[in-house]
Write a structure and sequence with these properties.
By secondary structure, the chain is α/β, with parallel strands linked by helices. The chain has eleven helices and 13 strands. Strand 12 and strand 13 form a beta hairpin. Tetrapolymerization of the monopyrrole PBG into the hydroxymethylbilane pre-uroporphyrinogen in several discrete steps.
Length: 319
């Protein structure tokens, strides 16, 4: 990408009002407002534009059955490409690994918690015995697969809607609990007291991170937005998404990945789990930070040399 001279960017800073596209949910608006606040710290003016996505309209069909990658992002992509908005803000785990043509990643914000959590109804006694029976709710095929791998006798129920709606459904149900992303609840102060971190469950690639995208041709906006980019989070989420893309390429798959940075190295853990939870293949790799750029691709290619490849093929063929 060709960068513009600083004098030109400074002039655009003064003149421009960036139109931020966001979904209408409480969490999405919180994320967009955070971007607005960060831009204001760099003297960039902006305003929010609310757009309803297909994922917000259909609150019944499980996400993995919708058959569409980017179910929460494609409407914003269209608004971006038609120049109704200048940037779009997404939960990064919802964004397809292959961005729409003409759209580029402009910034990744510092990551919040990457953990999944269990919001439970009464108690967690049913977790003490992996052979126990219980009913757990989630619409995520990744969470379902990992849960069934650990608790094969549990039943999984579908749970859709924004975080407020899902919490209410849990309260009104007879379920033992439901799985949420910690970041989604914590950002809007909705995490219930009756919840625990699922430290054994590997998260979705880029879970807990917020990404800002813009039009590829809009170099001035890219440079303004890139000022709020967090390099360590950008590196870790790239590694995780590379792992996902190299294995299957889709975001609605039972693939988990987590890259974390220390002062000197990146530690990567990834796995793929059969949709029924019976099979799971894991990998762990480390690399010096300056050599970690391709760690996700390397980990995926190593996994493809094992029996995990047959599991991946069976999941692809089942779609």
């Amino acid at each position: 990408m060709i960068l513009l001279p600083l004098a030109v960017i400074d002039f655009i800073y003064i003149m421009a009002i960036i139109k931020i596209g966001t979904r209408e949910s409480q969490l999405a608006v919180w994320q967009a407002t955070l971007v607005q606040t960060l831009l204001a710290q760099h003297q960039v003016k902006s305003e929010l534009h609310y757009i309803k996505s297909d994922g917000d309209i259909d609150l019944v069909t499980p996400l993995y059955a919708l058959g569409v990658q980017g179910v929460f992002t494609k409407t914003l992509d269209a608004a971006l490409l038609s120049k109704k908005i200048d940037i779009a803000v997404h939960s990064m785990k919802d964004v397809p690994t292959q961005l729409a043509k003409g759209i580029v990643q402009a910034a990744v914000l510092p990551r919040a918690s990457f953990n999944d959590i269990l919001v439970y109804k009464n108690d967690t006694n049913f977790l003490e015995n992996t052979q126990s029976s219980a009913v757990i709710a989630t619409s995520s095929i990744r969470r379902k697969a990992q849960w069934l791998h650990r608790y094969p006798n549990h039943t999984i129920e579908n749970l859709r809607g924004n975080v407020n709606t899902r919490l209410q459904k849990v309260a009104n149900s007879e379920w033992h609990g439901a799985i949420f992303a910690a970041a989604g609840l914590e950002r809007i102060n909705l995490r219930p007291e009756k919840s625990i971190d699922l430290t054994w469950m590997l998260p979705a690639p880029a879970q807990g991170a917020i990404v800002v995208v813009c039009r590829e041709e809009d170099i001035a906006t890219y440079q303004m937005i890139h000022a709020i980019n967090d390099a360590p989070t950008e590196l870790c989420t790239k590694i995780e998404r590379d792992f996902l893309q190299t294995l299957m390429g889709g975001c609605s798959t039972p693939i988990s990945a987590l890259a974390t940075c220390t002062d000197k190295e990146v530690i990567f853990k990834g796995n793929i789990t059969g949709t029924d939870g019976k099979l799971q293949y894991n990998i762990e790799k480390r690399a010096a930070i300056n050599l970690a750029k391709n760690l996700g691709v390397e980990a995926a290619n190593e996994l493809l040399l094992t029996d995990a490849k047959m599991l991946i093929e069976s999941i692809k063929n089942a779609k």
